[in-house]
Amino acid sequence: MGAVASLDVVTLRERLGAELFRKVAGPDGPRNRERVHGTPGPRWFAPDSPITRVHGDASMFVGGIRAIMLQSLHPAAMQGVADHSGYRGDMWGRLAQVSTYIAMTTFGAERDALQVIRAVQRAHESVTGTMPDGTPYAASDPHLLGWVHVAEIDSFLLAHDRFGHEPLVGAERDEYVAQTAHVAALLGVTEPPTTEAGLRARLDAYRPELAGTPAARDAISFLVWHPDLPVAARPAYLALVGAAVSLTPEWQRRELGLPHPPVLDEALDRVVGRALGKVSTGAIRWAMASGHAQARELQDARG
Asked: Start and end of every ER-bound oxygenase mpaB/mpaB'/Rubber oxygenase catalytic domain (predicted)?
């Protein structure tokens, strides 16, 4: 009985992890994986470099959710989402597009990486509008692109520190930021930070511009409570959300209407968040194992 029960738990964990992975990768996930890893040609980053270790780790699921929360705090960025796409229409479709972009620019052949960057730039050309106070915004604005970039990189690095299989240490951390800057500059970010200290300074510089607008709170509420997942997969998803929230400072939680514990409960909040993240990323890591094996086979075939 014990062996059967253990097998059932493993099977359930694999199934739930695989369901979340399929949602984030999108319906074209297998085809994109083959293109990313199987296409011959030079690549920007070595297989075991900091950026490939971070972006290929299951902790990205937590980092991605945390990045969305953080990005939504810039009113112009959130207004663009609300006006031109929104999370209610196709949240998972948007996440799949971001997932493909990150995979292609991190692991893909140079020509494919440049192609996906140009596709994003073309998409940004039509994302323009006006803030409620009459201020114009444009998704192609280098300043706004810079915010989206630093919010992502801070979130990915923080989640990898807490939940990653092999956290970055020493000079690897600056190397990671510099590697992401290479991609960001090609997209249109002006002088993206190339060190961890520079990343922190850039985040601080954006602080006066940030606020939790009604559109931001609505989007994050939808992200948390309406994930469009099978009922059986929702606890695993909520565990990822809980882990992401545990990485979010108290002032950001307050702005977005997220739970923010009293001071005496902060230590417990960190412990619970760490546990949720370890369990949920562990489940996804199991599900990703076969995908990593396929990627290695494609790389070997590529020579």
From this structure: 53-275
Helix, strand, coil % (nearest 5) of the chain?
A: 75, 5, 20
**Residue 262 burial (10 A CB sphere; 0-12, 13-18, 19+):** exposed
Q: How far is CA 211 from the centre of its chain?
A: 21
Question: Concatenated DSSP letters for 264-301?
Answer: GGHHHHHHHHHHHHHHHHHHHHHHHHHHHHHHHHHHHH
Q: Is residue 296 part of a domain?
A: no
pLDDT for the residue numbered 120:
95
- Domain count of the chain? 1
Q: Which residues pair with 128 in a beta bridge?
A: 138
Half-sphere exposure of 101 toward its Cβ, with a 13 Å CA cutoff? 20
Confidence (pLDDT) at 264: 38
Strands 128-130 and 136-138: antiparallel
Whether residue 1 is contained in a domain is answered as no
pTM score, whole prediction: 0.84
Q: What is the mean pLDDT of each run of 10 residues along the chain (303 residues)?
A: 44 58 67 82 95 93 91 94 72 76 95 96 95 94 98 97 93 98 98 98 98 92 81 77 88 87 49 56 56 47 51
In a domain, 297, yes or no: no
Distance CA 231, CA 57 (A): 25
| Domain ranges, residue 118 | 13-24+42-289
- pLDDT, residue 269, reads 52
Q: Which residues pair with 43 in a beta bridge?
A: 109
